[in-house]
UniProtKB/TrEMBL annotation:
GO biological process: methylation
Gene3D superfamilies: Monomethylamine methyltransferase MtmB
Name of protein: Monomethylamine:corrinoid methyltransferase
Top-level taxon of origin: Bacteria
Listed InterPro entries: MtmB_MeTrfase, MtmB_sf
Membrane-spanning intervals of the chain: none
Entry GO MF terms: methyltransferase activity
Length: 458
């Protein structure tokens, strides 16, 4: 760990990040795309070419070793040798026992078309919720039977003031977030379930403040945390501080990483290589135990376009075939609660990733833009489709067939602002149950998938 931190002071110096991007990042990306022959046909959704998955892994590893990580605070590039990278990849654990009691689970690597290891179902709205309903929203998600873990909704206010990064309001909101989550777990009878906390805390000091075994984030295997890779292949001292705290606190923590489709890496092929490299970067730079992948579209801010579903399919296969790195796939949908489009997007993401060795994380809605615009109902649907894919042992070929049919249902709607309803409209917030109108819609969408050949286990 400390040898890695020293790289922030000892590596090659670039006064401006833009200089490093122009002299190193961009030319190296162009090189590895060409040398490793990474190509997308523009039509496929679920990759069935094992050789392409393997070349993607080699390209990502080559790229990471060649480029390194730019530290914005020291203006140094933190570079890793091939031997250092190989050591990290070899010594990474392929599974962790997390949670406790009745809610203890394995978080682990899976294989392509895995017949034995079910997906790990991490429910998460990835959205801000109003202070007055935050605890109730946590309870509503925790009630879901398939849930193996929860990343709770975020708080955006504290005592009537916006929670601002590097401000006392952020620290207090992070503490309140953690307290609400602990209370919610006890109130629905799931005190030992694994949670990933706390998204409200952007700064290192707010994360540290929320760590408390009595009322806040718990130590060791009981809770997870996340530390981000900044855009692109970049970090800063605050992120390194977070990783130090998580490791000393003993959390099974993850690397939050999202390459931008249409950003510095370019199109589909470059974004694929960058996203795969992020998984290697998190393990080497932060010592993370797992990674949350959310490659997203620059314009639409979603992960359910044709290109990004294919990208996540190849990414999952590259990781599953070539590493012991644990990863999850994050769903960011374009549409919002109470819309049929949202259900189709959830189904496509689940089918495109589960058969490739992925683990589902979600579901985020409305391009992750608005407060109170997510419900447990679409997350339930998303995870049930993923579980159905596993239980039915769906092949990549079958999932490709299904995904193409489902894509026809919503691809033309992606540019439309179809944001749907707030959780207060979809759910009875006293009983914490879906209103009948939306429960009926949910059942209709399940029936539609059944007609296509998806068999739900219950």
């Amino acid at each position: 760990m400390w040898e890695v931190f020293a790289k922030a002071d000892d590596g090659p110096f670039y006064k401006e990040q833009s200089e490093w991007m122009l002299k190193s990042f961009i030319p190296q990306m162009k090189r590895v795309i060409k040398e490793h022959d990474i190509k997308y046909d523009g039509k496929s959704i679920v990759n069935q070419d094992d050789a392409l998955a393997d070349r993607t892994w080699e390209a990502a590893k080559d790229f990471f070793i060649s480029v390194g990580v730019y530290n914005q605070d020291t203006h140094r590039v933190m570079k890793f040798s091939e031997r250092e990278v190989n050591e990290v990849l070899y010594t990474k654990r392929p599974k962790y026992m997390i949670g406790a009691g009745h809610d203890q689970r394995w978080l682990r690597v899976r294989s392509i078309e895995d017949k034995e290891r079910r997906p790990f179902h991490l429910f998460s709205p990835d959205a801000n919720f109003s202070t007055d309903i935050h605890k109730k929203a946590c309870m509503a998600y925790l009630k879901e039977p398939l849930l193996d873990g929860l990343c709770a909704p975020l708080l955006e206010d504290f005592m009537g003031r916006k929670a601002t990064s590097q401000n006392p309001t952020e620290v207090a909101a992070a503490m309140e977030h953690a307290m609400n989550l602990r209370d919610a777990q006890r109130l629905v009878g799931r005190p030992d379930v694994w949670t990933v906390s706390v998204g409200t805390a952007e700064s290192a000091q707010a994360q540290i403040a929320a760590g408390n075994p009595v009322w806040g984030v718990r130590q060791s295997h009981l809770d997870g945390r996340m530390v981000s890779i900044l855009t692109e292949m970049t970090t800063n001292n605050a992120m390194l501080n977070k990783s130090l705290h998580y490791r000393s606190y003993g959390n099974v923590f993850g690397n939050l990483c999202g390459a931008i489709f249409g950003g510095h890496a370019g199109g589909t092929e470059g974004t694929l290589i960058l996203q795969t490299a992020y998984n290697i970067e998190g393990a080497c730079l932060y010592g993370s135990c797992w990674a949350l992948n959310f490659p997203f579209h620059l314009k639409w801010q979603s992960t359910t376009t044709r290109q990004l579903l294919w990208l996540q399919s190849v990414l999952s296969q590259a990781m599953s075939r070539n590493s012991n790195l644990i990863f999850l796939n994050n769903l960011f949908a374009n549409a919002g609660p109470g819309t049929e489009q949202l259900y189709w997007e959830c189904a496509n993401h689940a089918l495109a990733t589960e058969c490739c060795g992925g683990n589902p994380w979600g579901a985020a809605t409305c391009r992750n833009k608005f407060t109170d615009m997510a419900t447990p109902l679409e997350s339930r649907f998303y995870h049930e489709v993923s579980e159905a894919s596993f239980k039915s042992r769906l092949t990549r070929a079958k999932c490709e067939e299904l995904c193409q049919k489902i894509m026809e249902k919503y691809e033309k709607l992606i540019p439309v602002d179809n944001y749907g309803k707030r959780i207060q409209e979809v759910y009875d917030m006293d009983k914490l149950t879906p209103r009948q109108e939306y429960l009926d819609q949910y059942e209709r969408m399940r029936d539609e998938l059944c007609k296509m050949g998806v068999e739900f286990p219950y």
